[in-house]
Write a structure and sequence with these properties.
Blueprint: E1 2-7, E2 10-12, E3 18-26, E4 32-39, E5 46-52, E6 57-59, E7 67-72, E8 77-82, E9 91-101, E10 104-109, E11 113-117
Parallel strand pairs: 2-11
Antiparallel strand pairs: 1-3, 3-8, 4-5, 4-9, 5-6, 7-8, 9-10, 9-11
């Protein structure tokens, strides 16, 4: 079992910045992907950015050039630096970890942190 604890959300004005953090604990294997998804009311959860343990990234077009994902493997943590925030970035952001456990893919979620971009 894996636990994820996210932090760093809040209220920010358009054009501002926020940094989200997520720490994973529990049974974590050496090869895994960590990332961030977001969800607004009435919509499906969508990928924001993810990063494999090998350093490969996948970033949504809507945030490219503004958001940067990074991770600290020693701390089993992932971060999302969000710059030039727009009102449409307002959502609940969820930290995610994917790994394969004895041949079975597993997906874990953090508790979600609210990001509100508003003047």
């Amino acid at each position: 079992q894996v636990q994820l604890v996210a932090s760093g959300g809040g209220l920010v004005q358009p054009g501002g910045s926020l940094r989200l953090s997520c720490a994973a604990s529990g049974r974590i294997f050496s090869i895994y992907t960590m990332g961030w998804y977001r969800q607004t009311p009435g919509n499906q959860r969508e990928l924001v950015a993810k990063l494999t343990s090998g350093g490969n990234t996948n970033v949504a077009d809507s945030v490219k050039g503004r958001f940067t994902i990074s991770r600290d493997n020693a701390k089993n943590s992932v971060y999302l630096q969000m710059n030039s925030l727009k009102p449409e970035d307002t959502a609940v952001y969820y930290c995610n970890l994917d790994q394969t456990e004895w041949g079975t893919p597993r997906r874990y979620w953090g508790q979600g942190t609210q990001v509100t971009v508003s003047s």
